[in-house]
Amino acid sequence: MTSINPLANPKGVTLLCELCKKAAYIQCPDCRVAYYCSVEHQHIDFVGIHEKICQLLIPLRQTAEPFLQSEEEREKRRLSLLNRKQHMIELTRTTGQKLLFEGSFAEAVPAALQSLAFSIDVYGLTSVELVPAYLILGEASIGLNRLDQAEEYLSQAQWTVLKASECGNHIKSKLYRIIGLLYSTKGDYDEALRNFADDVFHASEEFGTDDIRTSGGYYHMANVFSKLDQQQTADSHYEHVTEIWQAHLRKMVKIRLQTPATPKGVGPDAFTHNIERQLDEMLDEAQEAEAVKVLSHIYSLRNDDPETKPKSMALISHTVAMLRSIQREEKDSLALAREARLVAEMMTDQGGSDQRLVRDIIEFAAMLEPYKTPTPEIPRENNIETES
């Protein structure tokens, strides 16, 4: 932590806090381009986003422009800065969404503010590219029970969408989802369901009905139906969400196990690098946090309900097992896979139309068995002593 005196700033220069935009008295000692009004705000920003972007901020906030003689050099620099800023928008946005799924609402705010600032810088004040940042701020405010503040952010997002000549369905989907969360928090479940239905419609138009990016709308509808004591309807929605994630994670597991015909790159790590890149494209860190939150919740519901059907229990256990495997938590994955296999074997005895699920479960469990820690054998001499 480095203290600064606002009175010592150059004439016309006002250094402001990254979070509240009040006069700054503290400077980050590492990047020296981030400023804060207090130690508390510095800590919140560091935990939320600054730790990730500290060094990335330096070239973006340098005040001294290098002397470039040719137009080509100036254009190259301009494009380089633009690419850096767009990367910062994506990084801060994804981090903010991840923190929301983890329930870290206060920590999500700094990431969203950085995303908003860079979006304004790159796209201007009226662009729909600002909407995702407004929505993260809105959802964080809901989580912090600051509903009036949430309404302000969501109103700004709605107004931006209305003014835009073109707005993609993926942005409309997210907008309706967060508005639905606000109504659900207020206890207005009819309006919540209407907005979640609009969310599912627009997400389906953009990604399809069975995409993980559509599943969030179904999940939130299930939560509302559960609050309304319409448990059968809630269960069917939870089941659909699980099926969507199961299909997606099954594809990821298949990719992880495959051996590419031709490596992309040079060296012994070429195969692994290509596979990891494919997996990252299928599940970014925000989507992974969403999967953990949603599937863990559904698993708890199924596990705690004595009336859960065997298929539902087998499905969610298998799905969470695949998620843990993707996260390389092999011990947890194996335990869940065995749990799913026990239920699947019961389903095999009963027959029925779920044999593909049963086969997937048994094959996946068998694949994980090599990760089991072998039971140590008793040394021969100990056996002799015991017998004597």
Describe this structure in words.
By secondary structure, this protein is mostly helical. It is 70% helix and 2% strand. The protein is built from 15 helices and 3 strands. It has helices at residues 39-57, 71-101, 105-123, 131-143, 147-163, 169-186, 189-207, 212-227, 231-257, 270-282, 285-304, 310-326, 330-350, 355-368, 380-387, and strands at residues 2-3, 26-27, 35-36. It has a 3-stranded antiparallel β-sheet with strand order 1-2-3. Helix 2 (71-101) packs parallel to helix 11 and helix 6 packs antiparallel against helix 7. The termini are far apart. Residues 373-388 have low confidence and may be disordered.
Topology readout:
Layout: E1 2-3, E2 26-27, E3 35-36, H1 39-57, H2 71-101, H3 105-123, H4 131-143, H5 147-163, H6 169-186, H7 189-207, H8 212-227, H9 231-257, H10 270-282, H11 285-304, H12 310-326, H13 330-350, H14 355-368, H15 380-387
Antiparallel strand pairs: 1-2, 2-3
Helix pairs in contact: 1-2, 1-3, 2-3, 2-4, 2-11, 3-4, 4-5, 4-6, 5-6, 6-7, 6-8, 7-8, 8-9, 9-10, 9-12, 11-12, 12-13, 12-14, 13-14
Over the alpha carbons, how many angstroms does the gyration radius reach? 26 Å
Number of E-state strands? 3
Query: What portion of residues is helical?
Result: over 70%
Class inferred from helices and paired strands: mainly alpha
The largest sheet is:
3 strands, antiparallel
The best one-word shape is: globular
Count the helices. How many? Answer: 15
Task: Give the averaged pLDDT, no decimals.
Answer: 88
The proportion of strand residues reads under 5%
Low-confidence stretches: 373-388
Helix and strand sequence: EEEHHHHHHHHHHHHHHH
In the sheet with the most strands, the strands line up as 1-2-3
The CA-CA distance between the termini, in Å, is 70 Å
